[in-house]
Design goal:
Blueprint lengths: L17 H10 L3 H4 L1 H7 L12 H45 L4 H16 L3 E6 L5 H4 L3 E2 L4 H6 L5 E4 L6 H4 L8 E6 L9 E7 L12 H19 L1
Parallel strand pairs: 1-2
Antiparallel strand pairs: 1-5, 3-4, 4-5
């Protein structure tokens, strides 16, 4: 039974007796199998004599290490799955917003104003090399001829940059805000000038080469389709 020390405000919690622990383990025979790290902690290695290894203790230590590794991997897998699901949902919401635009002006405003919060970035710019019809060109950021291949690399669809220097051609007055960005080529075809979508974040390392780009290229495909639809009108 727990005792109270003089001056203590509350009694220390009572610990189970040896008989109670034994009774619990008998009633739950799988307990130590499910928690091998406990067995590894409480069962000391046995002294079996010179040159004789205690395989039981070794096995328990190995099981404990394996369990910790599995738990760590499971937690990382769950975190990544939740993050991917969140990104996928945000991209779907962005696509629906793009498709709902009822004019080219509203379409571009949707990209630049509504999509950044959905995609958790600070800036999103639609950038074209010269050649877009004047009615559409006034709404986009104009690049120099050859700039898209220069920024992305010839034939490359995306480029993720963990850190970014000054890029006023991409971000205009918002250039000083961007510390990391993702550049995505718009697949517009040969009858329209080369273009890209730039997503900028104020935080360095928001984008990096280890990230998947499937959702970005999917969004770029939808944006390109919408550009073609409005320019054709």
């Amino acid at each position: 039974m727990a005792t109270r020390k003089t001056g203590d405000k509350a009694a220390a919690p009572a610990l189970p007796t040896a008989d109670q622990v034994a009774a619990y383990l008998r009633a739950h025979p799988d307990f130590l199998r499910e928690y091998p790290e406990i067995a590894a902690d409480v069962l000391p290695g046995r002294d079996l004599g010179d040159g004789i290894a205690d395989l039981q203790a070794h096995t328990l230590r190995a099981l404990r290490a394996e369990l910790l590794t599995m738990r760590s991997g499971a937690e990382e897998l769950i975190h990544n799955a939740r993050s991917n699901m969140s990104t996928q949902t945000s991209t779907h919401d962005a696509v629906l917003a793009v498709l709902a635009a009822d004019s080219f002006e509203v379409f571009v405003r949707t990209l630049t104003d509504d999509l950044p919060p959905l995609l958790q970035v600070d800036l999103l710019m639609l950038c074209f090399e010269p050649g877009l019809p004047k009615g559409a060109a006034i709404y986009v950021q104009e690049l120099q001829a050859g700039a898209v291949d220069r920024l992305l690399g010839v034939g490359s669809a995306t480029r993720l940059r963990p850190t970014v220097g000054e890029e006023p051609a991409l971000y205009g007055s918002g250039d000083g805000l961007v510390a990391s960005d993702a550049l995505v080529r718009l697949p517009l075809g040969d009858d329209l000038p080369p273009a890209l979508m730039a997503l900028g974040s104020r935080h360095a390392d928001t984008f990096h080469n280890g990230q998947a780009t499937e959702l970005l290229t999917f969004l770029a495909g939808v944006v390109a389709h919408t550009v073609r639809r409005w320019v054709a009108r």
